[in-house]
Amino acid sequence: MRYKRFQKLQSLFKKKSSVGEQSDTKIEESQVDFPIDRTDYFFDHALVFYCEENDIPSEKISQSDMQEISKRAAFHLSIFVAWLGKHDFLNPQSDGFNLEDAQKLKNEKITGTDYLFKHLDEKLYSTDISDILLPFISDFYEDYMDFCYTVLVDDVAKTEFDWKIYHLVEDDINEMFSQYSALIR
Questions:
Q1: Per-residue pLDDT reduced to its tens digit, 140-150
Q2: Within the chain, what is the greatest distance between any pair of CA atoms?
Q3: Torsion angle defined by CA atoms of residues 40, 12, 20 and 77, in that order, rounded to the nearest 10 degrees
Q4: How many C-beta atoms surround the C-beta of residue 24 within 10 A?
């Protein structure tokens, strides 16, 4: 199975999505400041599920509903931002870096979503992460996004950040990072 890497995350969700493959997310290391991911990529999908779940027409959703939908759309990226923070891979020279909240994130006092919304404008750019991590992200994040878009997209669009889910995914990311680190030594 192509997505063997994410078995713990996949075990939390039941069905394969009916949504087709998304465009290639391959990251080129030579780019200076490029977007890695954005929460709005999942927003429309999260909106549809939220409206269906709550029996609300999209034109009648409130500001509070919009915030909830945005949090759900951010799930996949929030998990990764939390991993970056917990492993000291957020770039302290980045405009979005906040030492106090990065420490809170590392200690699980705030969520990946909190940090992403408050400091990164719901987007993750190459300049927001440590330079040593760019080659790893180039390989890893393409697989991660492909997995989220093709296998979990329906469930991801219904889910908010949760530290329990994070810890399951963290094991997978740590294993992949260890394999990557062993290859470059």
A1: 777 777 776 66
A2: 55
A3: 20
A4: 9
